[in-house]
Amino acid sequence: MAATASQQADRSSAERNSAVSEMPDELRADVRMLGESLGRVIAEDGGPDLLSDVERLRKAVIAARRREVSVDEVAAMVAAWPIERSVQIARAFTCYFHLVNLAEEHYRIRILRSRDTGDSTVPDSLAQAVAELKHDLGDEELSRLIADLEYRPVLTAHPTEARRRAVATAIQRVSAQLAEYNAPDRGAQERQEARRRLLEEIDLLWRTAQLRHTKLDPLDEVRTAMSAFDETLFRTVPRVYRALDTALAGGSGTREPRARAFIRYGSWIGGDRDGNPNVTARVTREAVLIQADHVLTALENAATRIGRALTVAATYGPPGQDLAGLLAQAADDHPELASELATRAPGEPHRQWLLFVAARIAATRRRDLDLAYRSPEELLRDLRACQASLVAGGAARQAYGELQHLIWQVETFGFHLAELEVRQHSQVHATALEEVRAGKTSERTEEVLATIRMIAWIQERFGPRACHRYVVSFTRSSEDIAAVYELAEHALGARAPVLDVVPLFESGEDLANSADVLTGMLALPAVQRRLAEGGRRLEVMLGYSDSAKELGPAAATLKLYDAQAELAAWALANDVRLTLFHGRGGALGRGGGPANRAVLAQAPGSVAGRFKVTEQGEVIFARYGHPAIALRHIEQVTNAVLLASTPSVEARTGDAAARYRLLAERVASASERAYRSLTEAPGFPEWFGLVSPLEEIGSLRLGSRPARRGLGAPKSLDDLRAIPWVFAWAQTRVNLPGWYGLGSGLLAATRTADDSGTAERPQAGPDERPEIGPGIEELRRAYREWPLFASLLDNAEMSLAKTDRQIAARYLALGGRQDFADQVLAEYDLTRELVLAVTGHSRLLESRRVLSRAVQLRDPYVDALSHLQLRALSSLRSPDDLPDDERERLETLLLLTVNGVAAGLQNTG
Questions:
Q1: Reaction catalysed by this chain (predicted)?
Q2: φ and ψ of 100, to 5 deg
Q3: For residues 193 and 740, is the Cβ–Cβ distance under 8 A?
Q4: Contacts of residue 206, Cβ cutoff 8 Å, sequence gap at least 6
């Protein structure tokens, strides 16, 4: 297939030229201005020669894309620079990507705002979902669906955010100045000052170290996640509810809302101890206290702000009898505070009351028990008393405006912000139980018992809602669930905390056996008790990362769907209200991709108005870094949850799945065989460690969790966690976890199946095109009619588009196993050809112009960093001994390029 690679290079050049010409003027202007500003900063700091070298490499990689120079010439240029110069150039391209990402984010925000004209319903919005459901279901059924609606995003600390927090903060400051610079109605002097400040912030970004000097601990990760809450989530959530309330009925803000608080954030940060010895009971306690401090501070500030503004005079809005009684009681219990507030707000009883509420929230944060609230429910009673009084006094707009937002925020976040979940490996529990029964406990077992006691402490302090889910990874049987309940009895006896033990099914075998495990769980007295107390609610978690690493992307996707369908049927048969918890990563190789499309592709009955999903690493800041983008993301997902729960969508999805069942089995079977033939081949783990920066990624100090299970180089994929597996492949520009095996699966499905329902891949020479059978038409129909299959191919297409064959080949050559390299590249060529054949596209991402443009424009600049990385990696992989100082400088160069490539590709793990 040598001709295929040449043709791909020609197409790539043409596609990039097209992408450049299609760039919107506003985006082009921002990218050019930011790029010029960075160039000016680089020249000021490193001199014109540094900027000249950056420009030489930039022009060379673009010329290589056009086939005007060879990649060997680019590599020679890079090799001629001293390592220190290469480090500076890598910093330049990394900063450039941070700025380009920022420009694209600002353009996206402008587009979102421009579409919201009010003249028509915005696609994928809550308004669009409500309008469609009113038409299809009627008001009564819509109300029922809204009443059951749940969306539970769970923030995790998986180390996929490659940027330092200091770098992220510097980027936020650049973002603020870019918004100021582009603000309309600015005078010339104001614009000049905004440009000066923008240059100042870009200069600071350039001078901020890209690499962490110390490893993150779990509490660092907690504090990092809190920035998303402080900056975005707290303010965005009530806007979501307001949008839903407006869509449900007119007059929002003047009547009792029909929208209820349906979002509940969760967190594994500080609670996930599976494979992370740094997460202890003490860390879990501190994580909850940090969360509580942030949410109570936010609630106090909101109550103070609203209270100060609530200058409703008693003459024009007299207090109701209940509120008057509460004010009198406050004066009796806290005379000094009540007197102070009466002096500050004379004749304004509602203002006095809300400021008193704010003082009580502050006391709750300080642990001043004389004034503190004992629970969020007590705070809600006080807020609703104020609301009812305003309504009775004729001030409905004041009752259902900002005050309603505060009520929604308390209902959503409570005093704990996010429901902290604990996770531990089933084998740890099994060992701990053996030791406890024997009466001789190790340090690790004592930590397990301490964790359970800490859950009890959290529940006593913040209520059971704050921490009651205990996730058991690698659940193999109901005994793994029973072990946690028995350990809880050993830890605290009758004072054991409320626990909902959640099985996590990750491997292909465990997914297949999941329904049987749940049947065994129903026989456990502790589970029976929790079902009775919780309205027969049960939660099950499905692991996308490890299943994809074990089976390959195609087989894992299809087996996860089958597991969901079986679990939904099991829940119906056993009268259980099942919530499936989707453990999806940010990258395509770990179940990532557009969340709303993933929801609409779920098995019938598996959503039922409830969707819970992990939000990992860089995804947290990509989705929640700006209020406009956060609002759009939450609306899109909720829109999909509502639509996926309707009989019409469930029937359409179910019919398509049944119609293409045999086809899916052929694709899954052949793709898994192809994937395993590579990943289980002798010597593959060692080869992977040579061709990728896998070993060095651990030095990035991305998170508190170790990159692999055990010590030393991985001997099999089981030793390697899914995140570094995906991250390392992205760095090589191969993106193998997102597509490998799919081509073989599609090819098998085009051919006549044998009696076993599978078809072997025909053998073809290196320059031969595989013979595509008549089954291609059925694959095309499946792509058009089955959302799951379409999502699988579209995600693979995105992953293929981020793969660069020429650069990838240079990485693969580092391992000294040409057979592996040839196997990977042949599967890439096959997958690319079959995906295009099935989708009907003439080029990758043809139907997704915005994404295609972003990839095409970035590729040459990512190439520059890849060449710099290859220079460092090839030297580090050389059999020759390197002096310690040279090795250290090469590792620094390598890690800087890892940061840059992650920023350029906009995903890591």
A1: oxaloacetate + phosphate = phosphoenolpyruvate + hydrogencarbonate
A2: -65, -45
A3: no
A4: 38, 41, 42, 45, 91, 95
DSSP secondary structure code for residue 845 in this structure: T
Which pLDDT score, from 0 to 100, does residue 165 have? 78
DSSP secondary structure code for residue 626 in this structure: S
The type of residue at 465 is R
- Judge contact between 888 and 701, C-beta under 8 A: no
Nearest-angstrom CA–CA distance, 540 and 580: 5
- Dump pLDDT digits (tens) for 345-389: 999 999 999 999 999 999 999 999 999 999 999 999 999 999 999
CB atoms within 10 A of CB 579: 21
Amino acid at 630: A
Token digits for 15?
A: 């596609």
Residues 303 and 263 in one domain: yes
pLDDT level of residue 696 (50, 70, 90 thresholds): confident
- Output phi, psi for 336, to 5 deg: -65, -45
Choice among 98, 158, 468, 802 that is catalytic: 158
Helices 165-182, 83-115: axis angle to 10 degrees equals: 50
The beta strand positions in 508-665, using DSSP E, are 537-543, 577-583, 610-616
Last-in-domain residue among 379, 413, 447? 413
Q: For residues 223 and 291, is the Cβ–Cβ distance under 8 A?
A: no
Within-domain flag for 363? yes
DSSP-assigned beta bridge partners for residue 384: none
Q: What CA–CA distance (Å, rounded) separates 505 from 551?
A: 14
Give the burial class of 846: count Cβ atoms within 10 A of its Cβ; 0-12 exposed, 13-18 middle, 19 or more buried. middle
pLDDT range class, residue 117, cuts 50, 70, 90:
confident
Q: Is the dihedral of CA 153, 159, 162, 165 positive or negative?
A: positive
**CATH code, domain with 328:** 1.20.1440.90
With a cut of 80, say whether residue 698 has pLDDT above it: no
What would the mean pLDDT of 771-793 be, rounded to a whole number?
A: 93
Residues 426, 405, single domain; the answer is no
Helices (H) and strands (E) in the chain, counts: 41, 9
Structure confidence at residue 856 (pLDDT):
83
User: What pLDDT, on the 0 to 100 scale, is given for residue 676?
Assistant: 96
- The CATH number for 582's domain is 3.20.20
Q: For a pLDDT cut of 90, what percent of the chain falls above it?
A: 75
pLDDT of residue 2 exceeding 70: no
Same domain, 523 and 405: no
Residue 193 lies in a domain: no
**Lookup: tokens for 728:** 């390392």
Residue corresponding to tokens 């997958």: 831
State whether 407 and 546 are in the same domain.
no
What is the full DSSP assignment across 320-339?
PHHHHHHHHHHHHHSHHHHH
Judged against a pLDDT cut of 50, whether residue 756 lies above it is answered with no
Look up residue 358 and give its two tokens.
Answer: 């704010």
Q: How many domains does the chain have?
A: 3
Contact status, residue 808 vs residue 815, Cβ threshold 8 Å: no
Is 401 a domain residue?
yes
165 within some domain: no
Domain that holds residue 343: 219-234+242-273+283-413
Question: To the nearest whole percent, how much of the chain has pLDDT over 70?
Answer: 91
Q: How far apart are the first and last CA of the chain?
A: 30
- Cα separation, 739 vs 671, in Å, equals 10
Q: Which string of b and e fits 3-37 if b means at least 16 CB within 10 Å?
A: ebeeebbeebbebbeebeeebeeebeebbebbeeb
pTM: 0.91
Instruction: Specify whether 786 is located in the same domain as 815.
Output: yes
Residue 549 designated active-site: yes
CA angle 633, 637, 641 (to 5 degrees): 165
Please give the radius of gyration of the chain, using alpha carbons only, rounded to the nearest integer.
Answer: 29
Residues 6+ apart with CB under 8 A from 874: 814
Note whether 426 and 341 are same-domain residues.
no
Amino acid identity of residue 345, one-letter, is A
Which segments within 555-701 are labelled E, that is strand?
A: 577-583, 610-616
Single out the residue in 349, 383, 413 at which a domain terminates: 413
Active-site option among 468, 549, 612, 867: 549
Q: Are 777 and 818 in the same domain?
A: yes
Is 467 in the same domain as 606?
A: yes
